[in-house]
Amino acid sequence: MEHVFVYTRKRREFGRPCHFSDRPAELIVDILPDAGLRAEFVERNPLPAQVQCGPEWSEHEVSAVNSMTMMMTMMTIMTTTMMMIMMNMMMMTMMTIMTTTMMMIMMNMMMMTMMTIMTTTMMMIMMNMMMMTMMTTTMIWMNMMMIMTMMMTMTMMMIMMNMMMMIMTMIMMTMMMMTMMMIMTMMTTLPLQVNTERLESEARGMNHVEGGWPKDINPLDMEQTMRYRKKVEKDEHYRSAIVRLGSIMEHYIKQNNAVDIYQEYFTEGQEEDDEEEEQEQPVARTISVFRDPGAVKRWVTALSWSPAGGCKLAAAYSCLDFQRAPPNMSYDSYIWDLENHSRPEMSLKPASPLVCLEYNPKDSHILLGGGYNGQIAYWDTRKGSHPVETSPIEVSHREPVYKVIWLQSKTGTEAFSGSTDGQVLWWDIRKLSEPTEKLVLDLSRKGDLGHALGCLSLEFETTMPTKFMVGTKQGLVVSCNRKAKTPAEKIVCTYSGHNGSIYALQRNPFFPKYFLTVAGWTARIWSEDVKESSIMSTRSDRVHLLDGCWSPVRPSVFFTVKMDGTLDVWDFLFNQKDPTLSLKVCDEALWSLRVQDNGHFLACGSQQGTTTLLEISSGLCTLQRNEKALASEMFERETKGAKILEEQQREIRLKERSRSEQSKEEERKESEKVERAKELLERAER
Q1: CA–CA distance, 106 with 163 (Å, rounded to integer)
Q2: Cβ 354 vs Cβ 316: under 8 Å
Q3: What's the half-sphere exposure (Cβ side, CA atoms, 13 Å) at 594?
Q4: Is 654 left (phi over 0), alpha (psi -120 to 50) or beta?
Q5: What is the C-alpha separation between 509 and 524, in angstroms, rounded?
Q6: Could you tell me the pTM of the whole model?
Q7: Crossing angle for the helix pair 67-127 and 131-189, to the nearest 10 degrees
Q8: Which letter, b or e, does each residue of 650-669 get, where b requires 16 or more Cβ atoms within 10 Å of its Cβ?
Q9: Gyration radius (Cα) of the chain, Å
Q10: What pLDDT score was predicted for residue 117?
Q11: pLDDT tens-digit profile of 397-435?
């Protein structure tokens, strides 16, 4: 017998480090791209290609304006300007000194001239004493006064001209300084410009899915692949390469085994930290609030986290009061970004208000929604706000669609929906013209839609692809098998115990055999092995419970929301009677609840269109020591106790049935005796 080995994993999945945890790595930070930087780049069509080996990069020189060179240039310009100012000041000082010297020289000359004239005049007066001489002296004095006045006027004009030149020089220096300051400010605020040549590059490779087979070999054809494998194994180069690489691989395996990768260091401090976390009080704080942007506030009927890191939250808005929708009510639902609570990132525009909405777990761009009029529609966020396709009204549900769930399929396009009209329909979004399959929730197994149970909640576990569960409006949980041969065989069994509509139904993510239901005034935990009663239940509350779900990271923690706006956190390992944490989120009723996959964040939707984002403390979203084992033991213990009670109830019913049958037999015998006595009397009378 020949063994044939087929590669089933992708090539890019080999060589990745192992996860030594039951949870994958989580996203620590998500830095969004800056859309404003697009204006600085030249747009080019992207070149999508997959590369097996590492990319090869080419280096090139870049000529750029250096900031140090810029500062040196500015310092040189400022120094030159200051030197020019100092030279101008020196010239002005020298001109002032020269003007003062000239004035002093002129004053001395005038004084000497006046002294000479006065001496001459006195001598002439004394010698001649004539009138003519006096007249001549007077004229000389007048001429001298005119000359002095003219000289003084010219001196003042020169001083004023010097002052004007000084003022103009100062104004010019001030303007030059202001211009230099503006140039410096512009050069420091402008981005650094780089002059490079545009280089276009492209990387190409092969995506190895089936071991990189040649083009003429079909990987799905076992005969061709086996023949080609034998041909390669006979090649001498292949054998030599295997021998050579085998020794290298053995060396690295031994080197890897020489180090104990499971050794734990600093365990003492870690134990203390674990004890502190265990003693930490459970709390939850409000991160942000997303409000319905419409004028008419609607109910947040469903919430769904984006599978791409949980950074987006889709919310469905509707009004569930029959024929009481306010006028001018918007039909839009929204996708919110957790970093921006002021306005939604995108609007979804259905033909009817959405009652339920779900992200595709394989593609974060695709959403599936169920409308109030019973139609199914799906969106691709890359194609806009309007639905890509909508199911026809004649083949859709007849009443509001309260739940849609994506199925685990290869294509990732299959889903099923449930409505209060009593139908469960299966869909393929590639063709929404008609459902691929239909199930009528008629317990008599006659397929009568008039006697069908209304569906309010659905549950599907990927590890059990053939099973699904339905929470009904009548308080029953219906377990179904999709792969049954006939529609009557698809309804397997029912679980009864609630007195009201089942608003929430979910399996435990760690133990799928056990599931949670929320209905009426209580939340209950069930086991598939016990059908007549639940194994655990909360106390009957004063107000209605409207939604609930399990924690995705702790098997013993679940959440419920109530009509008075309260969020309750339950940990049945800690306390089964009272919630571990009870938080008043808002004043109106909370209709929807959804926990992020990593368990750190929780979203609640209210009746007034408000979605509240809460952050849970680390104690409630961190797996505790031995929690799985303790939860499993408690589930098994409660299941055994419920089975014992179920057996006792069954025995009591059998005894009562046997007693009733015996009493009926005795009554029948007594009636026969009476009949015989009557017959004997009649014969005797005859």
Answers
A1: 21
A2: yes
A3: 25
A4: alpha
A5: 16
A6: 0.58
A7: 180
A8: eeeeeeeeeeeeeeeeeeee
A9: 48
A10: 72
A11: 999 999 999 998 888 899 999 999 999 999 999 999 999
